[in-house]
Amino acid sequence: MKVDEVKEIAKEHGIKAGKMNKTDLIKAIQNTEGNDPCFASGKASQCGQESCLWRQDCPK
Question: Does residue 15 contact residue 32 with C-beta atoms inside 8 Å?
Answer without folding.
Answer: yes
